[in-house]
Structure formats: structure tokens, C-alpha cells
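Form 7-S
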Amino acid sequence: MATYKNVEEYNHSHLCFNIYVDIEHRTFGHLVSDITVCALDLALMLIAVVANILAIAAYRRTSVLQTPSNYLLMILSAMDILLALTVQPLFFIWKILELANRFSCEVYLGTVLLINFLGAVSFLITSFLISLERYCSVFYPLLHRKNANKRFFKLALLVISMTWLAFLLAMFIGKHHRVYFSVAASVVALCLVGTILCYRNIFREMSRRCGGERIVSVESITDERRQVGRFKREKAILMNMVFIVGAMTLLYAPIGGCVVYAILIGRDWLYMNFFVPWAYLLVFTNNAIHPFLYGWRSRGMRQSINGVIRSVFEETDV
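Output:
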């Protein structure tokens, strides 16, 4: 850990495990920004942990909610909790040390590596696995109903996590930062394009099925009602996933902007003191709002979460 006692000593570029970081004199604007970011970080960390734990408890409590799509959402909630309990405390320590005119390479690098790993895995779960699950539910419903889906999702998550972790460590330890960011940007772009095409095909298929010719007969009334009810449920789930993917894409976009800035200009004082803290804060916001999106778009999830909250308070009163 480095300590800087005066302005001249505090203004320089610091080599932090093969990464050059600009350490600049802190102005009043830096002070206000960091204090605000620290306060919001703690609040979002508390909200993310509590809200995601409630969502997981609601899922485990209600058998109706234990569908493949909700299973993936609970994996995403678990990743959100892990990020909130690892990255956000490290980020808070990093900013507190800067307020005390100190800089720790270990804390800075730990924050950067963890948010790159957990953030990337969360994004891949949202844009790849959830989109694949929705595609199978519409085009391959028989395969989608099999119990083997959960085992497949667990295996896919393990492969994605281990592959990305190995790639991340190899690139940073080997000083190939530009290669890492270029590959990461390409993967994100491919996932977004694939997600857009996937949902476009799903909406087209659902519109085709709902808009097809209907044969009115006594025998077909029951089947038609069942089909309409199923399409309504599928559409509600699909819109829920669209909102989750859209929210994550919007809130993760500033991180992409920071990556481009770091590649083109470097990790200067503007990047370190303003761009990165507020971009990270948007990622933390994404973790905190996920359970609210689940409850907003799913009446069953909302009611189950409310039931968990009521049961907690009832046990407390006793």
C-alpha cells in the first residue's frame, strides 16, 4: 500500500501489477463524488443482498415458481449476491483509502478482476442462457420440460465461469490487456446480436401461432383456451426477460465506454476519479433492481416475496 503526504508526491503514474494508474491531486469535486459514491455503494449493497435473498427464498418456497426460466433468474440472483459481497466492499475500501490519500494495488486489482469476472458471467447468463431457455420453450417445448434442463444449465454455467476466469487471468497476468478488452467487447457484441435475433424469432413465431386460422368447433374450444392461456404465460415470461436483458444492457453500457476510454487514452485522472466509480455504481444498481423486475413482471413471484417478508416479521414478533 502506498501513502502520499503532499500534492507533488500524490501526482504521478503508479505501476500496479503491469497496469499504469494515474494518481492525481484530489480536488473538492473528487471529494464530493467519492463520498456520494461510497454512500450509494453501501445502500445498493444492502438492497442487493436483502432483495436477492428474498427472491431466492420465494423461489424455493413456491413450487409453481420452480420453472427453468425462474431457475436461471435465481442463478443470476446468486451471482448478484456474490458480486455485492465481494466487489462492493472492495470498491468501498478503495474509495475510502483514496479519501485518506492512500492507494492499494491489491484492493484496486481485486476490484477490477472481480467485477470483470462476475459482471461478465452475469451478462452471459442473461444474454445467452436465458435467451436459449426462452428459445427452447417456444420452438422445442418437449425438450424444455425435461428435468435435465437444470443439470444442463449448471454445466453450462460452470463451463462459462471457468473458461472466462482462465481467459481473464491469462490476459491480465500476461499483460495482454488490449487483447482481453477487444475479445470481451466482441463477445458482448455477439451475445447482444444473438439475443436480438433470438427474441425476434420468438416474437414472430408467437405472432404466427396466435394469428393463425382458428377452427371453431365444440371439440376445439378447450384446446384453444389452453393454447391461448399458454401463449399468454409465455408472452409474460418473455417480456420479463426482455426487460431484464434491456436493463442490464443499459446499465452495463458505461463500463464498455470506460473500456474504450482506457484503451484509447489510458487510465488517467478523469477515468480513475469519475468515469470508473460511477460506471461501477450503475453495475451495482443493476444487481439491486433485479428482484424488483422479477416481482414487477411476475405476479406469482411478487406474491411469494411478500409471503416471505410476512413470515419473517411474524417469526420476529413471536
